Amino acid sequence: MPAQSSMHFYFNWAKERIDEMDAVLASLEAKAGEVQAESRSKADLLIADLHKKRDEFQEVAKKQADAGEAAWLRTKSQLEGTWNGFEIEVKKYVETFGKQVQQTTFQNAAAAQLKAWRDAAEKIHNAAAALAVDRRSDIDATLTRMKADASKAEANLQELKRAGTESWVALNGALAESRVGFRSGQSDGLGCAQARRHALTGGSDPVEPV
């Protein structure tokens, strides 16, 4: 993947995690009022800790906005540690405060993921539109696969949501699997669009960030 595409890949990886954190926090806060009074202080502390991890993640990512690929690679390990810590705290919250919180949290996180799929496909499509028709076939094929993968992921997530009987470990595993598929499809589409644009412009006209 060209260097600029790699930068967009890392930046969007971070943005998607932030969006998912926001979706999870919104669901937990919406249900916080239903927590029994004697447990409310514990719930508030866990949510405050999640906010702290989310803000830490965003702050570190922002500092890398203009950094090179090597800096992003070093920072990504730190961001992944913060993300993993966030997931551990969410698991603790869900297991402490019940099934209804679990379902709402899963639904919001899944919705954030599916929005990321759609937004990425649209932006890659827009980037490809600037290329000559005979140069778009690879990108169109990648977009077709990406949309098919998105539909499959949505069906799987919706099925789990309807079932409502899975553990948080299983639900979170499904979200993780969906993320892997999404990143693979986006990487292919972005790299292809960037390579085609470079071939056309001699590398002087970068593809729009995804």
Q: How are the elements arranged and paired?
A:
Blueprint: H1 3-31, H2 37-63, H3 69-97, H4 99-129, H5 137-163, H6 168-201
Largest sheet: none
Oligomer: single chain
Residue-averaged pLDDT, rounded?
Answer: 78
In sequence order, what are the helices and strands, one letter per element?
HHHHHH
What portion of residues belong to β-strands? under 5%
Number of helices: 6
Number of strands: 0
Coarse structural class:
mainly alpha
Q: How many separate domains make up the residues?
A: 1
Shape: globular
Question: CA-to-CA gap between the ends?
Answer: 14 Å
Helix content: over 70%
Low-confidence stretches: 197-210
Rounded to the nearest angstrom, the radius of gyration is: 19 Å
Report on the structure:
It contains six helices and no strands. The chain has 210 residues and is mostly helical. It has one domain (3-201). The chain starts with a helix and ends in a 9-residue tail after the last helix. Residues 197-210 have low confidence and may be disordered.
What's the quick description here?
This protein is an all-alpha fold and 210 residues long. The chain contains 6 helices and no strands.
